[in-house]
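Worked example (supplementary).
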Amino acid sequence: MLMLKPHFKVNARGHLVIGGCDAVELAERFGTPLYVVDEQRVRENYRRFHRAFVERWPSVLVCYALKANSNLAVCKVLQSEGAGAEVSSGNELQNALKVGIQGERMVFNGNYKTIPELELAVINNVLINIDNFQELETVAQVALHVGKKARIGFRVNPDIKTPTHPYIATGLRESKFGFDVASGQALDAYKRASRMKNIEVVGIQAHIGSQILDAAPFEEEAKRLMALVAEIKDRLGIYLQFIDLGGGLGTPYTPEERELPPEQVAERVVKVIEKSVEEKGLPTPTLILEPGRYIIADASVLLARVGHTKHRPGVPDWVAVDAGMNALIRPALYGAYHHIEIANRITEENSKLFNVAGPLCESGDFLGKRRKLPPVEPGDLAVIFDVGAYGLAMSSQHTAKPRPAMVLVNSGKAELVRGRETYEDLIHLDRIPSWLE
Ligand code: LLP
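After joint prediction of all chains, the assembly is encoded as:
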């Protein structure tokens, strides 16, 4: 058995307990595959992250990155904690509005925002981080059309190497995001925007990557951003009110990985900002952070029913569970590790090696390879850890499997917050054309 994080317990029946609920009972009551989100853990993660920065800097806005998990109940929990929102689509923006997050406490990012999405953002006073020169023109037109000034910042690309999977490293020069800093492109963007009528230039933003467990890249990011902020002030006389360092703080997925305390990141970036504000005589900016994974990843598990096992001479046995890459694509897509245990045998020794397969017709459809588990039997309940971020959010209906349901648990209470899709849900948008009827 692994060292469980403190928000998990084991009960007298030897079952995993999350949010005061027995995982085996949750699976019986709500079916599998099932995402389970621990409300208290979401709150704890948010509070710890928020506190780390607020204790060190006078003006902080933590915008939860909805892309990690935009379920309305999750958003509502974070809204009740006072979080702002980082949105990357009009629909995420609508979700944030729906749970009561004000537009002024949102940032809108992305390298391709549509006109209706931009309209929604301008109408709601959302801070838009512009990604390219053409988008700047579009936003100006949208603002004119809406009859409102657009609050904008620029997404800049500080060219920083991050120790993470190449698919989720976004701060490198060749990445598709933002304005290049080194060549003067970013400065040029500020210059152009400062001459535009319906544009209010208020911020600067970067996001260097995701699943980062080292504070150094964040410190470097802060240095490069502050150097640019000072240059923008000196050369253009623009004082930026918002410094947005993006998201990216990782969570330990493997038993060997160590957490990167948010306090450590806050300490190092705040020092950089403080120094630069003092030296360059800048007004105190509001620091924006956009954490997704840190807030929600370890607050959720996926429960999956074991169907059968299969012996293969000389290699690990297979165990097939009812959640595969349709329910959780991270192992197949990034080779990501998610720890797996058997929820109804949590106290038993993990003595046997298994490959854990999903139910889909692809060899890539696995949740883990070479995992030690107790001698698993049909009907057991597998639990996959740390799936709260980009789990359900990236799930699909591959092989016409309905997406999993999700429950929120807190102090022994459990309530469905995302229903299980039905066959009707799967086909209700399909049509057979008239000539085939
Ligand atoms: N802000 C921006 C502009 C972003 O692009 C992202 C994530 C975040 C904030 C939140 O980053 P976080 O704190 O969650 O690391 N699907 C991948 C992760 C992609 C992250 C994309 N951007 C995965 O499953 O690992």
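Two points are worth noting when inspecting this output. The CA atoms of residues 215 and 382 lie 34 Å apart. The first strand starts at residue 8 and ends at 10.
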